[in-house]
Amino acid sequence: MKEDASPDFENYTKTSTVYDVTRHPVGIDYMVEQLLALEKEGRLTGLDVGSGTGNHPLELKAKLPNLDLTLLEFNDGMFAQLSSKVAKNHADIKVQQGSVLNMVQFKDNSFDFVMMTQVLHHITAEGLDQDSVVTKVMTEIHRVLKPNGLILLNTSSKDQIERGIWFSVLLPLATAEVVKRTCPIANLMAILAIKFSRVNRVANFELLQTLPVDLKASKLTSHLKLTKENPTEPLSTIYQEGDSTWVLATDTEKSDAQTKLATLIKNDTIFQFFNDRQKETDTFGQTTFVTGYANK
To answer: Which of 81, 114, 190, 227 can bridge 53 by disulfide, Cβ–Cβ 3.0-4.6 Å?
Structure first.
C-alpha cells in the first residue's frame, strides 16, 4: 500500500517557499490551555504531525518553552525549510521526516500529546477510502500516545470551508474538491471515539485573516488587485501558491473569481459582499479543534 500526502493536491515543495508568508498559527492560546490542563509534572513530550515549516509548533514552544517537542514532516521541501528554522534557533527540538501512516521510528507510549493542524485532508493511501485513511492515522497516533495522552487536531467542517472562508463563493469547483477531501467532523469524532475518551470539538477559530470592510473604495480597489507586490492579499499569486483551495482552482476559475470581484467593485457592492461574508465567518468560523484522550 502506497502512503503519501496527496500528490495531486498541491506542489508542497513549491508551497514551502511561501508558506510562512501566507499562514499564521491557528488557536495557539487554546492549544496552550489544553496542554496546561494535562497537569503533568516535568516536561511534556509532544509530537507535531505534518509540521510544514513549523509555524504552529514553534509558536507553541515560544508560549511553553519547557515542551519536549518532536516534529514530523513528510514532504522534502517542507522538511528542508523546517530543519533549517529549527537548527538556527531551537536546538532542543527534534525533527524527523516520515509519514503519520507508519511512524515506525517512534515506540509505543512515547508522547504525552500529539497535535495535527490542517493536515488530515492532505493524506491519502492507495486502496483506502477517506474514513479508512483517517482510521489508520488515528490508530497510529493512539499507538504512540501514552495512556490518557492528548490528541489535538485542527481541521475544518463543510460549513466552515464553504461559508466561513470569504473567497469560497468565488471558487465553487475548487471549494467542492476541498470538501470532498475533508473528513466530516462527525465521522472524525466517531472514529476517535473507538480508541479515545472525552472526544470534544470546539469551532470558530479563524484560519485566514479576513479582509477589512471599512476601507475607502479607492484603497479597496488597490487592495484586491492581483499583484505580487502585496503578498498578504488572498488574490495575489504568492497567496494562491500557499492555499489549498486556490491551488485546486483552474486558471479559468481563478480568472472568473477576479472578474466577479471587479464587477462588485464597479457596481459599488463590494462592501456589502464583504459584510455578508464576514457574517458567515462570524457564524461558522473557519476551523475546528477536535480533542480526545487515549484509552489504554
So the answer is: 81
Question: pTM to 2 decimals?
Answer: 0.84
CA 151/CA 132 separation, integer angstroms: 18
Question: Residue 99 corresponds to which cell in the numbers above?
Answer: 509519514
Could you report the per-residue pLDDT of 243-275, keeping only the tens digit for each?
778 888 898 998 898 888 778 877 878 778 877
Select from 248, 128, 130, 112 the least CA-distant residue to 186.
Answer: 130
Residue 150 shares a structural domain with residue 68: yes
Predicted local confidence at residue 268, as pLDDT: 78
Closest CA to 153 of 180, 168, 134, 136: 134
Q: Which structural domain range is residue 277 located in?
A: 217-281
- Read off the C-alpha cell for 136: 489508520
| pLDDT per position as a tens digit, 114-148 | 999 989 988 988 889 999 999 999 999 999 999 99
CA distance 180 to 218: 38
Measure the CA–CA gap between 27 and 205, rounded to whole angstroms: 6
pLDDT for the residue 233: 52
Is residue 248 located within the same domain as residue 184?
no
Quickly list DSSP for 148-174.
EEEEEEEE--HHIIIIISGGGGG-HHH
Beta bridge partners of 287: 205
Percent of the residues in the chain that have a pLDDT greater than 70, as a whole number: 79
Domain co-membership, 22 together with 120: yes
| 47/152 Cα distance (integer angstroms) | 10
Q: Which helix (H) or strand (E) holds 207?
A: none
The CATH number given to whatever domain includes residue 11 is 3.40.50.150
Q: What is the 3-state secondary structure (H, E, C) of 79-116?
A: HHHHHHHHHHHCCCCEEEECCCCCCCCCCCCCEEEEEE
For residues 212 and 231, what is the distance between their CA atoms, to the nearest angstrom?
Answer: 16
